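Q: Joint fold for the lines below.
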Amino acid sequence: MLDSITFYFFAGVAVLSAALMVTRHNAVHSAVLLVTTLLATAGIFLQLRAEFIFITQIILYVGGIMVLFIFVIMLVRLDVALHHIRFRLQRWVALFVALALGVEITVVFLFARRLPGQGLLIQEPAPADKLPPNTEELARSLFSSYLLPFEIASVLLLVAMVGAVVMAKKRIDQ
Amino acid sequence: MTLPPSLEAILTFLQNWWVEIVCGVVIVAVVPLIAGYVVLVERKLMADMQARLGPMRVGPHGLLQPIADALKLLIKEDLIPDNADKLIFWLAPVISMVAAMTSMGAIAFGPTFQVARDINIGILFVIGVSSLGLLGIILGGWASNSHYSIIGAIRSTAQLVSYETAAGLAIVGALLLAGTLRIRAIVDAQQQLGVWFIFLTPVAFFIYLVASIAETNRAPFDLPEAESELVAGYMTEYSGFRWALYFLGEYANMIVVGSVATTLFLGGWLRPFPNVHWLDWLDFLPPLIIAAVGVYCVYRAGKQPAEIQIWFMWAVALTCFAVAVIFAVPLFVTSLKFILPGLHGAFWFLLKVSGYIYLFMWLRFTLPRYRFDQLMHLGWYILIPLAIVNVLAIGVAMILESEFSWNRWFAALLTSLFTLGVAAFLVNLYDKRTAAASAPATAAARDPYAG
Amino acid sequence: MGNALQQEDTTKKNSTLLGADELVINMGPQHPSTHGVLRVKLKLDGERVRATECVIGYLHRGVEKIAEHRTYQQFAPYVDRMDYVAAVSNGLGYCETVEKLLSVEAPPRARVIRTILTELQRIASHLVWLGTHALDIGALTPLFYCFREREEILKIFEKYCGARLTTHAFRIGGLQYEAYDGFEKDVERFCKNFERRIQDYVDLLTGNSIWIGRTRNVGVLSAADCIALGASGPVLRASGVKWDLRKAQPYAAYEQYQFDIPTGTNGDTYDRYMVRMEEMRQSRLICLQAIEKIPEGPILGKVGKVLKPAAGEVYHSIEAPKGILGYYIVSDGTTQPYRVRIRPPSFVNLQALDKMVRGHLVADVVAIIGTLDIVLGEVDR
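A: Joint structure:
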C-alpha cells in the first residue's frame, strides 16, 4: 500500500515536470525540470528496491549529464542558434510521432493483460532485506557473464573521451 | 474503526520508522545551528593562530556571534540583480543546502543514529547526493546574470568534478578493505579487523583529505571563492540570507566530508583499540574528556576580568560536568548499559569529525592558495593516477593476504610503500615540468640606453 | 576580505562567451589587492595577459606644486605623506637634499640616530610588504605576525617623535628631539626578538611548495630590462644587479657599518621575496651595530631659523625601502624653493609592470603588483 503511495507520488512528479519541461520557453528552466524528472524516476527505482540503479541514475544522469547539459545551455547563446532553425513542419511531425507512440503504448497495455503470466500486479514486493543485495548481484553478473560487453562499453567510453579531448584541443590551437 | 488502507499504511510506516524520522528532524534542526557555530570556531581558531582574539563582544567570548550574524543576514535587503532569472536565483542556494543535508541522511553518527536505516548503498548514497550540490553552484553562477559569476561558477564546478573523481577512487581503496557499501558494515569491518583503515591504507586517506579540501572549496583550493581574482565567484550577487544558505551548505558539506572520512578511515564510532580488551578502561575517556573541559573552565573562571564572565565560565563548567555525569552513569549502572554504544559512539564519532574539520581549518590559515591551473594539474596529474595505483595496490595486498597468507600488515606496508614511490615519481615529474616550461625568459640582449 | 568592487569597463566580447578574442578587464581603482587606488586595464587572450595599461593619478595631491609655496621647513611634513608606509625615509631624503643645498652637514650624533630610525623604518616597510603580499597570494597568517612586529617599531617611533606613521622625525640640519632615555634598550630588545620572528616567516613561506609554485618564475624581469626601465631597489637587486646607494654613494652614517647587499639570480617574485627578507636581516644588523656606539654631541647643525639657500640646484638620492628616492631642488635664493621634483621609486618601478605581466595568467597579476611594492602616494604624489 505504501508502495503505491510512493509510486504515485514519484510518477506524478515525473509526469508533471516532464510536461512542464517541454512547454517552457527558457532553456535553463527546462533543464532544471529535466533534473526533477530524472530525480523522480530515480525515486521510482528506489521504490522498486533497486537502490544501485537509483544512485547510479543520480550520480551519472543528474550529476554528470545534466551538469553537461546546463553547461552547454549556458555557454551557447541559444537565441542566436535558434534563429538558424527554420523547420516549419515541426509541429506536424511532433503530432504524428506523439500519436504513433500513444497507439503503440495502448496496444502494449491491451496485449499485456491478455498474455498469460504477463502484466500481473505484484501485491507485496519482497521486503528489502530478503532480496539479494543489489550492488553485489549486479557486480557478480557484470564481471562474469557480461564481462565482454562491459569491457567493450569501457573502451567505447574511453575512445569517446579521448576523441573529445583531441577535438577540443584542435579548436584551441586553430 | 478501520482506517482507509492508505492511512493505515502511513501509520504503520510511522510506527516502524519513528526513530529515523526523529533523527532526520534533529539533523535538519541542528545542522544549521552547528554550521553557524563551526564558523565561530573557525574565526576563533584563526584569531588564535594569528595572535589575536577573534569575536569577543557579542555574548561572552563571542558565543552569540552566530546568532547575531544569522539575524543580521535575515533582515538584510533581498537584492536580486537586474535581468536575473528569479526562479533559478532563488533555487540555486536551496539546491546546495538541500543536497548537503540530504546526504547527511545516510550518514551514521553512531551505531543507532542514522536516518536511512542501514541502506544498502550507504557510502555511494552520501557521495552521489552530495555531488548534487554542483547544480546549485552552476545555476547560482548563471542566475546572477554576470559574466564573472559564470566564469567563477564554471571554475568551481571544474574543480569539484576533478576532485570528486580522486575522492571516489580513494574511497574505493577503503571500500575494498571493507567489502561492502553499507556504513554500519564498514565500521563493523574495522572493528573485526581491529584496526582503523587509515593504518592499512594511509595513502588513500591522504588522497581523500586533499580531495575533500578541494571538494568543499577550502584553502588552499579556494581560488574560485577568493577575491584575489577579478571575481568573487558564483556567490558575488548573493546577499543576505541566500548567501547564508550557500555558506551553510559549504559548512554542512564539510561535516559530510568529515563524516565520510571518519566512517571509512578513522573507525567511525569506535573507540581507539576497540578489540583490545585490556584497554577497556578507554571506555571511560568520553566522560573524562568532558570533565577535563569543565575543569579547565573552572580554572579559567578565576582569571576572568568581569563578574558576568566568571558566572558564565562557571555555567559552562557545570554543564560540562553534567554532561560528563550523563556519559558516565551507563558505565556503572548495568541496566542502562544498552545506551552505551549509541551515546559513546556518537561522542567518538563527533570527536573524530571535529578533528578532521580542525585539520581543514589549520590548513586554511597556514597555506597560500593554489593558482587554478596548478590546482587542476594537482588533481588530474597527481591525485587521480595515484588513487588508481592505490586501488591496484590494495587489491594486490588483499590477494597476498588471502591467497598467499602473507601477514596483513606486511602486505599493507609493502603496497603503501610502492604507492608512495609512485607518488614521489609523479611529484618529481611535476617539478621537472614546471621548472622546464617556465624557464626564466632570457631576454635578448637589449641596449640599456635604447628604451 | 569582502568582495571585489570593480567597475566593469569596456568588455568587448563576441556573441559566444567562449571564443572571445580579446577581452579588456579593469582592475581597480577600488580593489583589495592593488595596494591603493591604482587602475590596471588588462587585455586578456583567454587566460593570458597580453598587455596592461596602468592608469594612475587617483591620489595626486599636487605635492610638488605645494612645495613652491612653502618654506623649506614647512614642506618637510608633506614629504612624509608620499610614501606613507616609510615616512622616515622620505624625511631623510628631503632633509639631506636641503642640507646639500645649504652646504651644511648634520652632526655625527644626528647622522647615527637618523640611520637607526631609517633602518627600523626599512624593516617596518618590508613587513607591510610581506604581510600584504602573502595575503594576496592567499596566506592569511603572516599579515598578523608582520603587523605585530611592526607595532614594536611604531612604538619606538611614537616614543621618539610622537607619531607612528607620518613621523616628521628629522629636521633640516639634524634632529629636533634627542633620543629618549631607553632608546638604545628598546632598539636592542626589538632586534634581539626580530631574528626569531624572521625565522617564523621563513618557516611559513620560504620552503612552502605552494608559495614557491606561485612565485617562482612569475614576473621575471631580467637585469638588462631593469636597467633599461630604471627599476631600483629590491626589484633591481633581485635581477642580479648589486646596486645599493647605501654602499655606492653612502649617506648618513652608512660607511661606518658592515652589511651585505643581498641579490637574486632570476629576477622573479621569489627572488624579490628572498632579497627583501635578507634586507630585513641586514637592517637589523645595522641597527645593532649603530646602537653600540652613538657618538655624543649636538643634534642640530648650524642652520638659522630662516633658510635662504643661495640660488642653485641640487639632486640627492637615497636608498628608500622601495628603491632609489631622489629629490631635485631648485632654489632661486628665496625662502621658498623654486621647484621640488621628487623621483619616487614606485613610480618608476610601476612602469615595469607591463613587461613583467605579459604572458602570465590573471591570477598572477595580483602577485606581481604586490611584489613591486608600490605605494600610490608615492606614484601619484
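Q: Anything notable?
A: DSSP finds 15 helices and no strands in chain B. Chain B touches chain A at residues 5-6, 8-10, 12-13, 85, 87-88, 91, 119-121, 124-125, 127-129, 131-132, 134-135, 138-139, 142, 150, 154, 157, 161, 181 (CB under 8 Å).
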